[in-house]
Design goal:
This protein is mainly α. It has 14 helices and no strands.
């Protein structure tokens, strides 16, 4: 397993990096373009949407904190070891669901990257897809340190672009934003929207288990987990404030394009599209790295190290199969049915066992499935 012997992790690696990593794997294209914000939160109105997003962030924080503590107590830095500790012999159920989800996600990301390349540069869609594939394969081949550097720098870019976007929106149509938030009506959908969106993305906590190797104690795990929710949701809230000015954006396929057209600033439009590509890159990299680290864990058990060449090969094979074969065999067409089914599967395989058996394991006296016995030592 790569980078396991790192000495003296910094406070950033212990507390902030996990939140950046969690944001990286949940952002994807739907979050970055605002499509998920419009779908889950805008129907509840401006304040209702904010309440729903705060609820989702709270759920993310609670589950991520518990996930990190359980991971430390079981000595797990990949999903295979984590679910062996949580589900025992049934751990393979998670792997089946995860691989199916991985193929769908990568197929969608590849298609989105291709569309961005065509939109920005007029390139054939295959070019954008191949650039994304090369980027993901390159970062995962270099190991966890490279992946975490990507999380850090893309996060800075992303927070900066969203903050800039909010500032410009306030100057261009701040009156509409004020009017939207002057209406204190809260739609009843905010509760369901918040819980649904939170559950839909909780798998992200599993995908970033390699970052737990930086944590010195279970107290670190709790703090990092609690910070993960706000760090992941903050950019979405900034963007949602802008969206609230235009309720009609709810029915638009790409809310980001709608709002960027309202600003009518080509350079900002370009910056935002580049940020979306970077979001696809970090989200895809985080998800593929979770699979690579699962394989690296097997090598580690045998006293071996997974080479960079093998990491690159496995990444490329996985990506090529997902991006090119998925659409050919109609897997992308199954998203409407299959994705929701898999979301429920993860709820049953991961969230419910974690909140019951996992919570009991980490809170009972002298619980020590791994090296760390005290829940908050």
């Amino acid at each position: 397993m790569s980078d396991l012997n790192e000495q003296s992790p910094s406070w950033f690696q212990r507390f902030i990096l996990p939140g950046f990593a969690f944001k990286a794997v949940v952002i994807g294209g739907g979050y970055a373009t605002g499509r998920e914000m419009a779908e889950f939160f805008l129907p509840s109105g401006a304040w209702g949407g904010v309440l729903g997003m705060l609820l989702a962030a709270l759920v993310w924080s609670a589950v991520t904190a518990l996930t990190f503590v359980f991971a430390r107590q079981t000595g797990a830095v990949d999903y295979r070891h984590f679910f062996r500790g949580l589900l025992g012999r049934f751990w393979v159920l998670y792997e089946i669901a995860f691989v199916l989800m991985l193929v769908i996600i990568l197929a969608v990301f590849g298609a989105a990257a291709g569309s961005l390349g065509q939109l920005l540069l007029g390139l054939p869609t295959i070019v954008g897809t191949l650039v994304l594939v090369a980027g993901i394969a390159g970062f995962t081949a270099l190991g966890n340190a490279s992946v975490e550097a990507l999380f850090k720098w893309v996060s800075i870019l992303l927070y900066g672009v969203y903050a800039l976007f909010l500032g410009l929106a306030l100057t261009h149509f701040g009156d509409r934003i004020n009017a939207a938030f002057s209406d204190h009506t809260v739609g009843p959908e905010w509760l369901l929207g918040g819980l649904t969106y939170a559950g839909y993305n909780l798998i992200g906590a599993i995908n970033i288990l390699p970052v737990t190797r930086h944590m010195k104690s279970d107290r670190d795990a709790v703090i990092a987990g609690l910070l993960a929710g706000p760090l992941a949701m903050a950019p979405a809230i900034l963007f949602f404030v802008c969206m609230a000015a235009w309720p009609e954006v709810k029915g638009v396929p790409l809310p980001s394009d709608f709002l960027l057209n309202k600003l009518n600033m080509p350079l900002v439009h370009w910056a935002f599209q580049i940020m979306i590509f970077a979001a696809l890159l970090e989200s895809g990299t985080g998800t593929v790295n979770a699979f690579i680290e699962r394989i690296a864990g097997v090598f580690h058990e045998r006293g071996q190290t997974m080479s960079r060449a093998l990491r690159l090969f496995v990444s490329l094979v996985l990506l090529m199969c997902a991006v090119f074969l998925a659409d050919r065999f109609g897997i992308v067409q199954l998203i409407a049915q299959g994705y929701r089914f898999l979301a429920y599967a993860f709820l049953a395989i991961y969230v419910v066992p974690l909140l019951t058996l996992g919570l009991w394991r980490v809170t009972r006296p002298h619980a020590s499935p791994g090296a760390n016995a005290s829940p908050l030592a």
